[in-house]
């Protein structure tokens, strides 16, 4: 029997798994998809919010500010890209300046440090590309940007290194109360656990309803984004927000930790919990809204678009508590924005709940907080590159020219503790396919490397889920194809 089962391996589930790996517990992390970070974590704004937006006294406010303060240490320990670049909320009229002052007061109540209300000239000095029609705004220097999937993957890897078991492709189909805990049924397998932590994202209400009476509902809210080429990545240096509305923080413009530019999202409630398609209509809306903040936004530099889902609760706040009619079952639900920012603090908060239940005993003497560093070849000095290539010639072979990713980095990503098993898994870990050509040149080589290292046929290499196949078989030679066409024409079997 496991002591703790965590359902859902997004950034919150992975944060909790890593936090619990500090203790003498038998813990399992369960994920329905083929990889960790495969839901909301893989498609969001990648912002570490400072914490002025949430209602004072709410869990969102408390855990956002606490989580923000933990990012420097966690990202240093786990070798995750993080930059504390600050954010600006822009106001274009006096009514919006009232909102700016309200945000400032909420930030003070929430304990956000170093905020300032700036005038037009101060903002334009910081960000000359924003709209000169602004009249002022709120500056929060503690805001930052992070690699969200890199963070979740590193958290999961460190958790596994410290004894947590990870089960992928294990969709929970039923949970039954047992004498000492719960029996969790997955496709073709069952496990028992004394405590269950529900981190199932947009499916958290459905998981909750397996063991308890319905007490909240999760509405999937889709947000679409554009990613710009690195050639325009320095268009702004900070996260640029518009004044928030009831639907969220609005369309933002922000640099990414990898040097691109991100614009989005919109906010659209959808019925399907897997609805991640983009639409021309909504992307046009984002473009129009973003130009309010920056009229000269270089849209010729867009290289791709994507959509993600936010798990919006009908309660208006994070839901982090033991279910009232299911002892030992802890909901961690409705973790919409600022969920990424709050994730480290949510993990500590959940550990405290378990301690109060008597579920957690002593800390491990051999817990190791440091993640195994990744070799980012193009960031090395010439001398370091020469030494790496001498040890392993695969680091001297560039596979992705847009992002300058080597074969050695791809092979390492496959064979780590929580290694990549498909094309998207490689892309999230070391970025081939993330550049200007979007994998047009490097994808065949990446597929060859995955097939070779995992000892599979290339037709078995998929983009993401088992049904997202890329190849269906070898192409026939032109002469064989011509013979087949001639035979079909002769027999009139078109």
From TrEMBL:
Ranges where the FAD dependent oxidoreductase domain occurs: 3-352
Native source species: Thermotalea metallivorans
Keyword Zinc-finger: no
Signal peptide: none
Keyword set includes Hydrolase: no
Domain of life: Bacteria
EC number per UniProt: 1.1.3.15
UniProt GO MF annotations: (S)-2-hydroxy-acid oxidase activity
Name this protein carries in UniProt: L-2-hydroxyglutarate oxidase LhgO
UniProt domain BFD-like [2Fe-2S]-binding: residue ranges: 398-451
UniProt KW keywords: Oxidoreductase
CDD domains the UniProt entry points to: GlpA-like_Fer2_BFD-like
């Amino acid at each position: 029997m496991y002591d703790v089962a965590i359902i859902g391996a997004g950034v919150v589930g992975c944060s909790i798994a890593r936090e619990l790996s500090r203790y003498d517990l038998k813990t399992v992390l369960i994920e329905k998809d083929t990889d960790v970070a495969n839901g909301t974590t893989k498609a969001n704004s990648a912002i570490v919010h400072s914490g002025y937006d949430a209602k004072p006294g709410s869990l969102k406010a408390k855990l956002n500010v606490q989580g923000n303060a933990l990012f420097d240490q966690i990202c240093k320990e786990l070798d995750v890209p993080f930059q504390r670049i600050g954010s600006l909320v822009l106001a274009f009229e006096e009514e919006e300046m009232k909102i700016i002052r309200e945000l400032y007061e909420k930030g003070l109540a929430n304990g956000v440090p170093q905020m300032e209300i700036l005038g037009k000239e101060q903002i334009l000095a910081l960000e000359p590309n924003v709209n000169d029609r602004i009249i002022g705004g709120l500056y929060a220097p503690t805001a930052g940007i992070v690699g969200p999937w890199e963070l979740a993957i590193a958290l999961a890897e460190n958790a596994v290194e410290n004894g947590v078991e990870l089960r992928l492709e294990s969709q929970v189909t039923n949970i039954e109360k047992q004498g000492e805990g719960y029996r969790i049924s997955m496709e073709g397998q069952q496990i028992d656990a004394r405590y269950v932590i529900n981190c199932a994202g947009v499916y958290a209400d459905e998981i909750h309803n397996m063991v308890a009476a319905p007490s909240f509902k999760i509405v999937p809210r889709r947000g679409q984004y554009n990613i710009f080429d690195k050639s325009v990545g320095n268009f702004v240096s900070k996260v640029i927000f518009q004044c928030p509305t009831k639907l969220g923080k609005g369309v933002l413009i922000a640099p990414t930790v990898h040097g691109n530019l991100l614009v989005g999202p919109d906010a659209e409630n959808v019925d399907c919990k897997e609805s991640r398609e983009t639409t021309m209509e909504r992307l046009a809306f984002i473009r129009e809204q973003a130009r309010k903040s920056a009229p000269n936004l270089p849209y010729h530099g867009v290289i791709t678009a994507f959509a993600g889902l936010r798990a919006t609760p009908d309660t208006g706040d994070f839901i982090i508590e033991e279910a009232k009619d299911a002892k030992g079952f802890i909901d961690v639900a409705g973790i919409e924005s600022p969920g990424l920012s709050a994730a480290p603090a949510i993990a500590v908060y959940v550990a405290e709940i378990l301690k109060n239940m008597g579920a957690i005993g002593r800390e491990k003497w051999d817990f190791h907080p440091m993640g195994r560093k990744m070799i980012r070849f193009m960031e090395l000095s010439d001398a370091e590159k020469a030494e790496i290539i001498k040890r392993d010639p695969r680091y001297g072979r560039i596979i992705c020219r847009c992002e300058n990713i080597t074969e050695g980095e791809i092979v390492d990503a496959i064979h780590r503790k929580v290694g990549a098993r498909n094309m998207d898994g490689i892309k999230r870990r070391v970025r081939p396919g993330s550049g200007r050509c979007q994998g047009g040149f490097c994808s065949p080589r990446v597929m060859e490397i995955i097939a070779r290292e995992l000892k599979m046929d290339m037709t078995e290499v998929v983009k993401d889920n088992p049904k997202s196949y890329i190849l269906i078989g070898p192409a026939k030679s032109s002469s064989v194809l011509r013979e087949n066409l001639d035979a079909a024409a002769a027999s009139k079997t078109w």
